[in-house]
Amino acid sequence: MKNRINTPDTLNKDTEDKLIITLKTFYGLEEVLAEELEELGFPVTAKLNRAIQTEGTWQDVYFLNLHLRCAISVLVQVAQFTIREEDDLYKKALRVKWPDYFDVSKSIAVRGAVFSDFFKHSQFPFLVVKDAIADAFRKEVGERPDVNLKTPQVVIDLYINKNQVTLSLNSSGMPLFQRGYRQSAGEAPLNEVVAAGLIRLSGWDKKSPFIDPFCGSGTLIIEAALMAAGIPALAERQHFAFKNFRHFDTDIWERIQQEAQKRITSLPCLIKGSDVSEEMILKTRRNLRGLPIGRFVETAVCSFDEVNAPDEKGVVVTNPPYGERLSADVEELYAGIGSWMKHEMAGYACWVISSSEQGFKSIGLKPDRKLKLFNGDIECSFRKFSVYEGSKKRKDEE
User: What b/e readout covers 107-144, taking b as 16+ CB neighbours within 10 angstroms?
Assistant: First the structure.
C-alpha cells in the first residue's frame, strides 16, 4: 500500500480547510476507484454517480493525478451554490476569485454536465460561466483570458443538477487514461482506465499468473504489469493541468515523483499476452519498449487456443472481438474460447468483457459473476467463468 508523502504542504497551510476533491470515473468502476483511493491512504467522503469524493490538499491533488489508475480526472471544487433562476448562475460564478487560481495568460474552456430545467439550451450555462470568468478577470486585472475549446490550459468543470451548481478546476487536463506510454494502438484499443478497472474487478492478487490471449496492443498486460510492479499509472506522462495553476509548487511535485516507484529488476509473477495478429504483437512490444516493466512481460504471436496455462493457478482477463468494431464470427470464436477454457485453463478464474450476448451463450459455461460496464460507448458485460479441475461437484467436496 502506498501512502501519501510526508512533506509540508505549502499550498494549504490551514490543515482544517481541506479541499473537496472529486474523482471522475466510468460507469461500474466507482467501487474499485473507492478501494484504490483507500489503499492510497485517502478517506472516501462520498460515492457519486461515476465519481468518488475525498478531501485533501493541493499536494494530495498532485499525488492522486500521478497514482490513480481507475480515475478519468481529478477535480478540485472552487464553489458550490444554489440557483433560483437562470441569472443566478452568472452572478454567483462572478463571485469566485478566479484570478487567485490561474493567470490571465492561460487559455480556458468550460466543460461538464447540466441536468436542469432552468436552461433551455444545453450549451448556454457553459457560455454563462465563461463570461463570468472573463468579467472577473477584467474587473481584477483589466483583461480577460482567451478561450481555447480544443487545447485549453485550464479547464473549468461545471456540474448542474436541478438547482445545485458545482464549479471545479480540472487538475488533470487531458483525461488520465492518456497515460503517456501508448506508442501504437489497434483499431479498437481498450481504454486504459477501463483496463485497470477490469483488473481490479477480477480480484487478481498481483502475485499469480496473469494472461490475456487477445492482447491487441497490450493495454491489459501493461496495466497489470504496472500494478504488480507498484509503478504509478501516469509515470510516463509529462503534463498535467495543475502545472498551469498560479500556486503550482515545483518542489513538491518533484518530491512526489522522486518518491514514486519507477524502476524494477523483476516482476513478482508471470504476465503474458498473446494475439493471433503479428501486427498487434509488434504494437504491444512497441508500447512495452519504453516502460521499466517492458522486458519482464511475455508476448507471443499465436491463437488463443495455443496458449497453455502455467502450473501455478492465476487469472485470465481478456477483451476478445465482439463484432462491434472488429469483424468476427462471434459464435464460432466464443465456442472456441469456451472449449479452450475447459481444456487448458482448469483452476483459473477467466474474465471476459464483451457486448455480444450470443457470444457469451456460445462459451457454454455458466458465469459466476456478471458486471455491466462500458467499453467506450459500447455497453458490455464483464463475466467471470471459474474453470474447475474435474467436475464442480468434486471441487465443492474438496
Answer: bbbbebebebebbeeeeebbebbbebbbebbeeeeeeb
Is the CB of residue 193 less than 8 Å from the CB of residue 220? Answer: no
Collect all residues with Cβ–Cβ distance below 8 Å to 377 and sequence separation of at least 6: none
What is the pLDDT, as a whole number, of residue 310? 87
State the pLDDT at residue 323. Answer: 65
Percent composition of the chain: helix, strand, coil (DSSP 3-state, to 5): 35, 20, 45
Q: Per-domain residue ranges for the chain?
A: 19-170, 192-233+260-397
Cell numbers linked to 57: 490538499
Q: Which residue, among 184, 120, 110, 116, has the nearest Cα to 154 in the 3D structure?
A: 110
322, three cell numbers? 465482439
Element (H, E) at 39: helix 30-39
Provide the 10 A C-beta neighbour count for residue 47.
Answer: 12
Query: Interhelix angle for 58-67 vs 250-259, to 10°?
Result: 40
The topology under which CATH files domain 192-233+260-397 is Rossmann fold (3.40.50)
The pTM score is 0.91
Closest of 385, 256, 387, 381 to residue 309, by C-alpha: 387
Region 87-110 average pLDDT: 97
| Phi, psi angles (nearest 5°) of residue 160 | -125, 125
Residue 301: name the closest of 283, 329, 322, 280 by CA: 280
User: Under CATH, which number does the domain 19-170 receive?
Assistant: 3.30.2130.30
Going by C-alpha positions, the residue among 196, 211, 226, 225 that lies closest to residue 71 is: 196
Q: In terms of pLDDT, which residue wins out, 120 or 3?
A: 120
